[in-house]
Amino acid sequence: MDLKQLYQDIILEHGKSPRNFGICNEYTHEAKGHNPLCGDQVEVYLKLNKESKVENLTFKGSGCAISIASTSIMTELVKGKSIEKAKKLVVDFLNMIKNGTIIKSDELDEDQKTKMMSLSGVKQYPMRVKCATLAWHTLTSAMEGNKEKVNTEVLD
Ligand code: FES
Q1: Which one, out of 16, 43, 69, 149, has a CA that is 20 to 30 A from the CA of 137?
Q2: Which fold would CATH assign to domain 3-146?
Q3: Is the Cβ atom of 65 under 6 angstroms away from ligand 1?
Q4: Mean pLDDT across the chain, nearest whole number?
Q5: pTM over 0.85
Q6: In this structure, what is the dihedral angle of CA atoms 117, 41, 155, 4, given to the nearest 10 degrees?
């Protein structure tokens, strides 16, 4: 199987069966995001423990396959990380989507890197970049305790 097909399969699978869907118990942070161009919405629920580690991360929302897959993959990759590492993963992801940077993070194993890289092809489709980045910007907003809804139209 070539890499392009593998990446496509990962996106389709997460789009159809998103992981960590719903509202987790005792979340400590939450944020909402939307893409006004298509009306898609996402809400993320984050539970940080006393050591500032992401104990749980779930989401609700509706969107295209890319936005749902990206959100699902994000919850899987960020869960269990410290807040600093979670923020670093967001930066790595956005660099990959916008600049084509290869994911080299020591925080991820090979399978996890492949999952993250599955969204790298989005860079070639400017209209879909915001589909892939909506959840990650919304997660940043949740981690920073911002109350304002994330709007993809006012982001880079
Ligand atoms: Fe709306 Fe993808 S079309 S987020």
Answers
A1: 16
A2: Sufe protein. Chain: A (3.90.1010)
A3: no
A4: 94
A5: yes
A6: 20
